[in-house]
Amino acid sequence: MTQTLEALSRRLDTLTSIRGIVHTMKTISAINAVPYERAARSIEAYHRTVRSGLQAFVARAGPIAMPAVEPADSVVVVFGSDHGLCGNYNELLAEKVQAELAPTTAGHAALRVLCVGAQMHDALAGQGLGPESVLLPPASADGIGRLAGSIVTRLDDIGGGEPHHRKVTLAFTQRAGRGQHEPVLMPLLPLGQAFLSELAGRPWQSRSLPDYSMPSAELFAALLRSHIFASVFRASAEAMVTENAARLVLMQQAEQSVDDRLDEVKGQRRSVRQDNITTELLDVIIGFEALRKSPRSTPHKTTRPSPRNTPRQT
């Protein structure tokens, strides 16, 4: 169906406005990812310091004997998005949580889910997982510490102040090779034996022997809480980086699609405009030819009486 020039012009204006919105969203996603990436690098440096403290504690106090009691609660903290326009970012992580964690709780206590982001809440509900609480994701890099502190406090309340009384897993999306990202499940509590063995087997990089003066239980609890906080902080920062990266890729694809559609509509408008101009020129030419070929009208001659027939006045 051939469209009019006015309709094509309106479509072109609409597509131009959409392209401006998409370009703005792409720019915002690119800008927002930078501070979250810096926060992830910063917390990694802090986490290395905490692990060094745990290593010093193990070197001074000896291997840490973890209780063999089965944790009473199984908790998963899922980091998702609070906004859309990021493709299947939330759905992929929700499917991984359902596939790998839900079967492990069969015959035990129900899996307790702490969710970050309203969009992730909907994705988990679609997989049959009902989060018991939904937390707001950070609006900026400064809010990551607030979110991490709130999650650590909730985990303390669930475990009754004893970190080994619950099994905690962090579910988030992290960066992969070649600009890709992938959902991961990272065990957080209780501390794995491999993690403790790696600390005990690591050589102490100093000529001074580690020592401490505060009670061992209090020191280990403080180091463990710092380890939990740093892990949650890093997971949140990594989730925000990958969310903005996913939105950036989607907006780039949308911008390319809008550009292709703009080129198509511009071509259609040029064709319709050329057809209109051609039609008007043909109308002018046909009218001119019709006027040129029509017979010219001859003027009527008036007859004057002959002088001979004119009566003489007396």
CATH class: Alpha Beta
Report the portion of residues in β strands: 5-15%
Quaternary organization = single chain
What sequence of helices (H) and strands (E) makes up the elements? HEHEHEHEEHH
- Mean pLDDT level: 83
Q: What would the principal axes of the Cα set say about the shape?
A: elongated
**How far apart, in Å, are the first and last alpha carbons?**
88 Å
The portion of residues assigned to helices is: 55-70%
At the third CATH level, what is the topology name?
A: Pyruvate Kinase, Chain: A, domain 1
Low-pLDDT regions: none
| CATH-assigned homologous superfamily | ATP synthase, F1 complex, gamma subunit
GO cellular component, one term: proton-transporting ATP synthase complex
Organism: Halomonas urmiana
Region (Disordered): 293-314
Biased composition (Basic residues): 293-303
Task: List descriptors.
314 residues; alpha/beta; Pyruvate Kinase, Chain: A, domain 1; five-stranded mixed beta sheet; 6 helices; 5 strands; elongated; transport; ATP synthesis; hydrogen ion transport; CF(1); ATPase
